[in-house]
Amino acid sequence: MFCIFGKVFYIYVLKIVLLGAGNVATHLGQAWVEAGYDVAQVYSRTPESAAYLGEKLHCHYTHLPQKVSLDADVYVFSLKDNSYKDVLDKLNWKSKLLLHTSGSLDLDILEAYSTHIGVIYPLQTFTKEKSVDLGHTPFLLEAKHDTDLKIIRQLASAISDNILNISSQQRAILHVAAVISCNFVNFMYSSAEKILLDNNLNFNLLRPLIFETAQKVMSESPSLVQTGPARRGDTTVIQNHLNLLQKYPELQQLYEDLSQQIVVSFQQENIPNNDKL
Amino acid sequence: MFCIFGKVFYIYVLKIVLLGAGNVATHLGQAWVEAGYDVAQVYSRTPESAAYLGEKLHCHYTHLPQKVSLDADVYVFSLKDNSYKDVLDKLNWKSKLLLHTSGSLDLDILEAYSTHIGVIYPLQTFTKEKSVDLGHTPFLLEAKHDTDLKIIRQLASAISDNILNISSQQRAILHVAAVISCNFVNFMYSSAEKILLDNNLNFNLLRPLIFETAQKVMSESPSLVQTGPARRGDTTVIQNHLNLLQKYPELQQLYEDLSQQIVVSFQQENIPNNDKL
Fold it and tell me: Which of A179, A190, A254 comes nearest B241 by C-beta?
């Protein structure tokens, strides 16, 4: 409590409990601690994970749902999608603010447990031991009540300058798009790496190309910068590549399907071709 | 000519003719001019393209193969794969050094035209009006004779610090890998953009994720940082996503195939999963 010009102010720091000790919980927890929030406790089903993150954040930790402290303000769930119910069912959350961080779950999954529910979904790919720039990561928010949304917005803006309210339906679409442009993209990288290694070529050779390909769509629309044999309708090169991929039947099929889709989509749109791989 | 300690030195600047005025010719030409090489002439089948690049590089230009100057040292062909023969057939190249810049063509295609032949293949994606960091771009070289390789190496090292000699067979493999990790990746970006736009969501929301996904494999092996529902074997999310993609049958099929391939390849390799999208 402190006074300025005869008025009394209370500084109240939100008390947070993290449920989950995976990559999302780790990154959010660290960011909130750095921003001065009181991360009071970590719960994880796995004792080692609970201890690891609890010690990292200098807070209490437990692997027993019944030991989750009920005197915090906000409960942030970052669990596997199919583990939420297990934990939620175990406690009487009364009217606590319950948030989940999942791209694929509706807000509604929290409805049976509290009147104060919301979503704080950071649209990013997290790897535990790798720091990631959360400052510009989109945080996609949803809540039933405006007062709850205000608190969620405060929590998000302590981490990022890129905050947006969206519905569960929009979040589901974004999650599909994220899988396509992140997980499937990484699978492409990994498939390319595999055929290079089999031919004694170093994946390093592709890194500048991969970086430039991503860099290019930071300012351009990807549909305007598509390049390559399929984009040029170069059936000779496509056929040569399919022959080269004979040892990899799944990848060969994928190459054929994707080339076909690129050919068709650019035939339809009739966008001029000024590019070259 | 100049003398130091009584010895006579000649400064001889290699004279280069560019055949082609597309993205590769433009970027290489500019880099060589900046490095002090004498880019003497540009040929392009299209008069406007020849003029555009010729004026940009302050050199002669022509759209007539018979007007290509035969007093240069090096002829660098950056044409569409199926246009090489047209131009090569039109002149008597004698023993000039002929180089092509294609990832998909064998060195042999030049064999009938000169005894001095080679390849200088920059493994990068080029867009005409966008500058690209060529300084670390892999330049993949091949030649029949060591003396020619020396000249090609000199030309490449004027542009990049990342130079490697590889065979036509290895270059073909690298080209397939480049299509997969660049062209197919961009098609993923573009597919994601499409479904976002259809749902009034801005592609900007995906940009930090796309950047981080590429950034991550700059230091890591992609097979070790695969994330997402298929990686986790989360069939519920995969099924929800397939339902959401019902309006896009090709993309839906692609989602299913790719998820299946990811599931199978990680089941086989039994790599632990520590990641989350």
Answer: A179
Residues of chain B with CATH 3.40.50.720: 10-166
Picking from B24, B81, B104, B184 by the largest number of A CB atoms within 10 A of its own CB, the best residue to mutate is B184
> Does A212 sit within 8 Å of B203, measured CB to CB?
no
Q: Where in chain A is the domain with CATH 3.40.50.720?
A: 12-166
By the 8 A CB rule, do B186 and A227 touch?
yes
What is the rounded distance in angstroms from the CA atom of residue A139 to the CA atom of residue B19?
Answer: 50
| Inter-residue contact B74 to B17 (CB < 8 Å) | yes
Residue contact A222–B179, C-beta within 8 A: no
Which residues of chain A neighbour B133 with C-beta distances below 8 Å? 208, 212
CB atoms within 10 A of CB A208: 23
Q: Are strands B2-4 and B7-9 parallel, antiparallel or unpaired?
A: antiparallel
Q: What is the pLDDT of residue B276?
A: 56
In this structure, the dihedral spanned by the alpha carbons of residues B225, B226, B227 and B230, taken in order and rounded to 10 degrees, is -160
Contact B179 A257 (CB under 8 A): no
Nearest to B73, CA basis, from B134, B116, B23: B116
Nearest to A103 among B164, B261, B277 (CB): B277
Out of A138, A181, A250, closest to residue B261 by CB: A250
Beta bridge partners of B116: B97
pLDDT tens, residue by residue, B197-244: 999 999 999 999 999 999 999 999 999 999 899 998 889 999 999 999
User: The whole model's pTM is what?
Assistant: 0.89
CATH 1.10.1040.20 boundaries in chain A: 173-269
Rounded to the nearest angstrom, the minimum Cα separation between B260 and chain A is 10
CATH match for B173-269 among 1.10.1040.20, 2.60.120.620, 1.25.40.80, 1.20.1260.10: 1.10.1040.20
Query: Is the Cβ–Cβ distance between A208 and B124 less than 8 Å?
Result: yes
Residue A23: list chain B partners with CB under 8 A: 274-276
Q: Which option is the CATH number for A12-166: 3.40.50.300, 3.40.50.720, 2.40.50.140, 3.10.450.50?
A: 3.40.50.720
**Cα of B26 to nearest chain A Cα, Å:** 11
ipTM: 0.90
**pLDDT given for residue A268 in this prediction:** 66
